Every structure is written in C-alpha cells, then in structure tokens.
Amino acid sequence: MTLATTWAQTWCVPRAPSDRRPQRRRSAALPVAAAAGGHVPVLLPELLAALRPVAGEAAVDGTLGAGGVTRALCDHVLPGGRVLALDRDPAAISRAREGLAAYGPAVVLEHASFGDLEAVAQRHDLRPDIITFDLGVSSLQLGDPARGFSLRQPGPLDMRFDPAGGAVSAADLVNTLEQGELARLIRTYGGERFAGSIAARIVRRRASAPLTSTSELAACCESAIPRRFWPRHIHPATRTFQALRIVVNDELGELERGLAAAIRILRPGGRLGVIAFHALEDTAVKRLLSNLARVCVCPPLQPLCTCAHRATLSLPTRRATMPSVAERTRNPRARSARLRVAVRLDADPPAV
Ligand SMILES: C[S@@+](CC[C@H](N)C(=O)[O-])C[C@H]1O[C@@H](n2cnc3c(N)ncnc32)[C@H](O)[C@@H]1O
Predict the structure, then answer these.
(1) In the predicted model, what is the mean pLDDT of residues 118-143?
(2) pTM for this structure?
(3) CB 242 within 8 Å of CB 190
C-alpha cells in the first residue's frame, strides 16, 4: 500500500460533471462541517476519554481552530483550572475570541505557533496537565477561498496559516522552484505518484504566465494525471495541495518542535493527545512518542542493559485510535484521523 492510498487526504471534492459516477456518491462525499459552515472536531469523545481533564487542571490546546476542543477543555477544567489556546492563524484567534469570552480570564488565546509552545507557556507561567494538538486545516480555513487551501473554490494560491508571517506562499513555490525540486516535494509530502508529470505541467504552464489561483493549479494536476488514474475518493489535485501546504507552513518541522516542547513542559502525570490527518504527521508522532517511552536503548542483542536510560513517557495504548464508522460517515473529514496519547513520567526528556 502506498502512502497516498492509505491516507487519501481528508477532503472530498465532487468530480467534474463529465464523471460518470452516480450523483448520490458525490453528495455523500460533501463534508458536514463545510455544509454547516463550521468545524466539527474529530475524535473529541475519544480525546476527552483518553486525557481525562478534571476541574482545576491546566490545559493547553495547541491548535485552537474553531475552538471546539478548547471549549470542551474549558468545560472540564473550569472552574479552578486554566486553558491556554494557540493558533498560528490570526483569523482563528479573532473568530474564537468572542465565543470563548464567556469562560472569563482563565482562558487565554495566543496568536503563536505551537513550535514556540515552551516560551508561550513560560510567559503565562503555565505548567500544563494536558496538551492537545489537532493538526492540519480547519473547515473554516478550507471554506474561505481567499486562504487558498481549498481546491473546490477558486482563490489565490496562498496556503499560509499565518498570511502576515512572512513565509513563502504556495504561488511562490510553484512559480519559482526548479522542476525536479517541485516534483520531489509533491512526491515526498503528498505521496503523489504522478509528481513528475504534475511538476512538468506546472513548469510548462508557468512559462506563459505565473500560476496565481487554486483553480489553475488544480487544472494542471487534472491534466497531468491520466483520467483512468484519477483517485476514486479525492480530487486529483488533493495530494499536490497537501504537499504544498505542508511545505509552505513547515508543518513537520513545527510538529517536531511542538511535540518536543509539549513533552518538556508537561507536569509528571500530564497527558498529551495528538490527532494527525496524514501518514507523515502520524509517523512523526508515533516515532517520537515510542522513542521516549522506551525503557532501554541498548542494542537489541546486548544481554544486559547498560544504558541507564529512563522512559519519559508511558503510552496507554500502542495503537492509534481511529474514528468510528459512524463518525467517518457523519464527517468525511474524520476518515484519515489518528489519535495518539502519551502520559509524562518523572524522568526529563533527553536534551536535543
Ligand atoms: C484541525 S484545526 C483545529 C480544530 C480545532 N481543534 C477545533 O476544534 O475547532 C487545526 C488548526 O491548527 C492551526 N495550526 C496549524 N499549524 C499550527 C501551528 N504550528 N501552531 C499553531 N496552530 C497551528 C491551524 O491554523 C488550524 O486552525
């Protein structure tokens, strides 16, 4: 199984009218959250059951989004507790502020990346009992064509979580990268087997004029992939969009920094919950948590342990929790979600 087939990305897009598949299938693929214009948190009951937040605890939501997880944390840790919620997208912060104001001053929202979590938590003098990361894009971001995340509506090729943050946009990447590098990014971060043809098509297309819109990029992907190889459940451009978004926002680098910070600042006994939406993220989470949960790092054939290594984490379950069939049916965005949970032990993590 390839990365792309196991982890078909989260968003279903109706195909072109010429597609001969039955109409019923297309409408069933439309996400509920998008239809409602909001964001439905994925795996929320499972997250709460695993993290067991109780009144008086301090919690960090590293990915505020539309505030669903933050609200649930508030409902459990208040009164007496505190919640700090971060988002890299200033629009998410301003949209959620009003809805969360009723919880009062114990809830603080910060426009920051979770890669900077340690500094932000220190600024608020917070040693959390609970930290959550619900990775990826929110339905609010996907539903706003001006952000450039959605291939369903034409918009500027942007894809930056923080548009004022100075990072390169998706348009910068597709219009400036050398063809081989573009193909490598699309293959590595999108798991796209037609990455080479897509990159070639983009380079040919930009020779006449730079690509500026999501629909131009989507059209390049459609024409670069032979129709018979179009994926069944996702738009042919989905993997390319995913790859560009990951690179534009350095999502894997941020994740590594965010997880390391979270594990450093959690109290002993504190719980970490991470929901990932594609294999690259989930593999990074799994690898880091498993390494820190090892009690011995001696070579496997060494008969006696001499490493004096101490585990920093315990893992209540080795396997990721996946959404139920009912949730996947209700919310197609949930299809690829994986929840992993860890508990902080007394030992400090090794310095990196
Ligand atoms: C899937 S949504 C979270 C949805 C949220 N749990 C809810 O219930 O509404 C992911 C959010 O994480 C934010 N995000 C992505 N990378 C981030 C980072 N490095 N630091 C902080 N926020 C980030 C995105 O801007 C987006 O709003």
Answers:
(1) 96
(2) 0.87
(3) yes
71 Cβ closer than 6 Å to some ligand 1 atom: no
Domain ranges (residues) in the chain: 3-29+168-248, 44-139+251-344
Mean pLDDT of 47-70: 97
* Mean pLDDT to the nearest integer, 271-298: 94
* The ligand 1 atom nearest the CA atom of 63: 12
Superfamily (CATH) of domain 3-29+168-248: Putative methyltransferase TM0872, insert domain (1.10.150.170)
Mean pLDDT of 38-50: 93
| Ligand 1 atom with least separation from CA of 138 | 2
Please name the residues in contact with 227: beta carbons below 8 A apart, sequence gap of 6 or more.
none
Residue 252's pLDDT is 97
**Atom 24, ligand 1: which residue's CA is nearest?**
137
Q: CB neighbours of 254 closer than 8 A, spacing ≥ 6?
A: 88, 113, 114, 115
Write the CATH number of the domain with boundaries 44-139+251-344.
3.40.50.150
Check pocket membership of 289 for ligand 1, CB cut-off 6 A.
Answer: no
- The lowest-confidence range among 32-41, 64-73, 309-318 is 32-41
- Cα torsion 18, 22, 28, 29 to 10°: value is -40
How does 164-195 read in b/e, with b if 16+ C-beta sit within 10 Å? eeeeebbbebbbebeeeebbbbbbebbbbbbb
